[in-house]
Design a protein that fits this description.
It contains eleven helices and six strands. It is of the alpha/beta class. Helix 2 packs parallel to helix 5 (85-94). The chain is globular, with a radius of gyration of 18 Å.
C-alpha cells in the first residue's frame, strides 16, 4: 500500500492532459511500481521511454510480452547501462499491448552536443524547441552547478556548459518523440524519464510548451524523502522512501 496518492483533482488534471511525463529516480524500485500504477490509470495510447532506442522499441512492439524477463534479453537491456531490469519490470508488465516509442539519444550524438551545442546537433527543428536561444545566465549557472554536483565535482566546472547542452539535446529529442507519438497515436501519451527531464522550469514541459503551446502537459515528479510534497518543478510530486544504494560518488573515485 502506498502512503501517498493523487487527489481526485490531481487525477482529473493528469487524465485531462495530452502528454503526461512520469519522472523517476532511476534506481528506486517504488518509483517504477508507482509509474506502472499511473500508467494503468492513464491508459495511454503509447508510452515513450527515455531508456529505449528506436530499435529496442520495435522489438518490444513485435513481442507478445507474455514473459517480461525474456523481453529484457531480446532488447539486450543488461548491455544498456540502465539499472537492473527487475526495477523496470512493473512498467513493462503494465504496458499490455500499448505501443512503445524509443527516445534514447545515441551516446555519440550526446558527445557531439557537448562540443558543438544542442542546436547544431539537433539540426532542423532546433528553433521549435528553443535550442537556438541561449540559456538565461542565472539558469545556466544553476544548471552548471547541478551538473558539477552530479558528477561529484570530478570534472572542471568550466566543462559543465557542455553537459547542459547535452541535457538540452536530450530534452528536445524526448519532446520530439512525445509529439510524434501524439500525432501518430493520439492522446494520451505517457513519457517515462528521469526527474531532470520532467521538471517544468527547463525540462520537457518547457520545451513542449514552446513547440506546442496549446498542448496540455502534466508532469509527475517521483522524489525521495526528505523532500517537499509540493515541489514547484512538477505539477504533482510523489515522495517515497529513498532507495538503498551505495555512495554514488564512489563510482567516480
Amino acid at each position: 500500500v502506498f502512503a501517498q496518492t493523487l487527489s481526485p483533482a490531481q487525477t482529473t488534471l493528469m487524465k485531462d492532459a495530452q502528454i503526461i511525463i512520469l519522472g523517476e529516480i532511476h534506481d528506486n524500485r517504488e518509483h517504477h511500481q508507482r509509474q506502472a500504477k499511473l500508467l494503468a490509470l492513464i491508459d495511454p495510447k503509447a508510452v515513450v521511454f527515455e531508456m529505449l532506442s528506436a530499435t529496442q522499441a520495435e522489438i518490444v512492439n513485435a513481442d507478445l510480452r507474455k514473459d517480461v524477463a525474456k523481453l529484457s534479453e531480446r532488447i539486450k537491456w543488461d548491455a544498456s547501462g540502465w539499472p537492473d531490469f527487475k526495477l523496470y519490470a512493473p512498467i513493462f508488465a503494465a504496458l499490455g499491448d500499448r505501443r512503445v516509442v524509443g527516445a534514447a539519444v545515441p551516446s555519440g550524438v550526446i558527445r557531439d552536443a557537448f562540443g558543438k551545442g544542442a542546436a547544431k546537433v539537433f539540426g532542423e527543428g532546433a528553433a521549435r524547441f528553443g535550442l537556438d536561444q541561449d540559456v538565461p545566465s542565472s539558469q545556466l549557472e544553476a544548471r552548471k552547478q547541478m551538473q558539477f554536483d552530479a558528477h561529484c565535482e570530478t570534472m572542471p566546472i568550466t566543462m559543465m556548459g557542455g553537459m547542459v547542452e547535452a541535457q538540452r539535446l536530450r530534452d528536445a529529442f524526448f519532446s520530439r518523440a512525445a509529439l510524434n507519438a501524439y500525432e501518430q497515436y493520439g492522446a494520451p501519451i505517457v513519457v517515462i524519464t528521469g526527474n531532470g527531464h520532467a521538471r517544468r522550469d527547463w525540462g520537457m514541459p518547457a520545451l513542449l510548451s514552446k513547440a506546442a503551446p496549446k498542448l496540455k502537459v502534466y508532469s509527475v515528479g517521483f522524489v525521495e524523502r526528505p523532500a517537499p510534497s509540493d515541489d514547484p518543478r512538477f505539477n504533482v510530486t510523489i515522495v517515497t522512501a529513498p532507495a538503498k544504494r551505495s555512495e554514488p560518488c564512489d563510482a567516480f573515485k
